[in-house]
Design goal:
3 strands; alpha+beta; three-stranded antiparallel β-sheet; 33% helix; 5 helices
């Protein structure tokens, strides 16, 4: 009997005790992400119950063919276009590059506004703080 898991590489790597493998996986994920290739990690337990990395599943999920034109049209009409994604930062940068959105002003999720943890309300100064900060 064994357990198996697949998921975000950084999460699966937390299960793995072999730091050389973890480092290799992180390097591979970085190299793939720089090319716009997404990855999922797969691991399973061995006979001693320790997690062993099996590999990475890779896949492409490029923007739709009409997305670049849609963004260009929106910009032409004065619309400020922003992209919000749950993808790895490297994937976001590559997608922004492909869509001619720059890629110099990409912020991680910790830079996004959060709802108040108690009231679940948006911050009172939301528009003042976040309207012109250059999100991609």
């Amino acid at each position: 009997m064994f357990r198996s898991s697949k998921g975000a590489p950084h999460v699966i790597c937390q299960l793995i005790n072999n730091q050389a493998i973890v480092k290799a996986v992180e390097q591979d994920v970085q190299a793939l992400g720089a090319r716009g290739i997404r990855s999922l990690a797969v691991a399973r337990t061995n006979d001693q119950g320790e997690w062993v990395m099996l590999g990475l599943l890779t896949f492409l999920d490029p923007p739709r063919a009409d997305t670049l034109q849609t963004i260009n049209d929106a910009k032409h009409y004065g619309v400020s276009v922003r992209m919000i994604t749950g993808d790895h930062l490297l994937i976001a940068k590559e997608t922004a590059r492909r869509l001619d959105m720059g890629g110099d002003h990409i912020l991680a999720a910790d830079g996004l506004p959060m709802l108040d943890p108690v009231t679940k309300q948006k911050p009172d100064d939301l528009s003042k703080r976040y309207v012109n900060i250059g999100y991609v």
